Amino acid sequence: MPEGHNVEISHKLSEQKEDEQQSKARWEAVAEIIEVAVLAIVAIATAWSGYQAARWDGQQSLLYGHATADRFKADAASTRGGQELSADAAMFTAYLQARSAGNSKLEMVYIRRFTPDYRAAFLAWLKTDPFTNPSAPAGPGYMPQYRNPACSLRIG
Asked: Does the CA dihedral 133-137-140-144 come out positive or negative?
């Protein structure tokens, strides 16, 4: 093989390597641009999520405060309703004792002191003839007419 021919082959091989290196360099540049774009998108998404988290954290705190206030009001109403029910039950027991003793004046005092809702249930309970009817409800608190507006406590 002539020597000039070897030189030609050598030049062609080196040209191919240069083309491959240029092509490789282009792909590396494209890959670097894509990497920078992805990192920029990640940075923007991170900043946006931090902003949203801070924004909604404040909203959550505000709503939590409202819920806490509502819970305190509900607890207070439930406590008041329980106290009213206890007072009505105690007066009902005293009414039964006064009735048993035949003291009608004292009976009327206790009936007047019932809360309006309990009094309505008491009057409905009396209509069931509870002192002679064995299937009558045990007391006014067991009557469907009894509604304690301050709480959801019901005996029956």
From this structure: negative
